[in-house]
Amino acid sequence: MLTSIAGQSVIVTGGSKGIGKGIAKVFAAQGAKVLVAARGLADAEATAEQIRKSGGTAVAHAADVSDWESVQRLVAKTIEVFGQVNILCSNAGIFPQKKMVELSPDEWDHVMTTNLKSTFLCVKACIPAFEKAGKGRVVVTSSITGPITGYPGWAHYGASKAGQLGFLRTAAMELARYNTTINAVMPGNIITEGLRDLGQAYLDGMAAAIPLKRLGRVEDIGNAALFLASDEASYITGQTIVVDGGQILPESAEAIDSI
Q1: What was the pLDDT predicted at 198?
Q2: DSSP string covering the chain, please?
Q3: Would residue 235 show up in a list of annotated catalytic residues for this protein?
């Protein structure tokens, strides 16, 4: 598929579950060496073990991506086990749903720190490794929620995801001197462990609002990230790609019904 991925060293934050797990597996299947980073070591190790059983290369590491020292240790660990850092998939994020009238300032700060500040910290920590390697790739997992759409209870999440896109546009210019690109994938409704817990009726209702009539798979996001991290995408930077099955396109429910 994308032969330039083979042998590359990849950090995937939030890689133990959901979209991050999908990204980690997609990269490993193309021959990348994956560092699966998550808050819980046991969960990260479980994903890494699945990758290894499938013939891939993966190592688990516990990290708090909102903490600068922890992020520096994450990068150092990757260099220790793989020799370098070629690709950063900044995917870690949280999305607790709470409307503003109930949302505390501390809860707002927690989401912004975990989702937005962590993106800056991870990119900053990788710059020396990218410079040494002679090139680098950063793929940020943003969302359609915030940059394009809104949903009650996710003002903090939406702000953090829109903030990531503001960050990457200037970051793209600053990283260019290190022959490093940074782009973002913006997922729509992707089926993950959390969504499955809501039941089939809920999933069917969500799929009905999407032109392609299905929820996305974590591999759909992984494949988009894979392309943006490849040599084939070396002239793309500061850009975003929506992966949502057409979810943002209909202007009304009637538009969906007429398909």
Answers
A1: 72
A2: --GGGTT-EEEEETTTSHHHHHHHHHHHHTT-EEEEEES-HHHHHHHHHHHHHTT-EEEEEE--TTSHHHHHHHHHHHHHHHS---EEEE---------TTT--HHHHHHHHIIIIIHHHHHHHHHHHHHHHHT-EEEEEE--SBTTTB--TT-HHHHHHHHHHHHHHHHHHHHHGGGTEEEEEEEE-SB--HHHHTT-HHHHHHHHHTSTTSSPBPHHHHHHHHHHHTSGGGTT--S-EEEESTTTT--SSHHHHHT-
A3: no
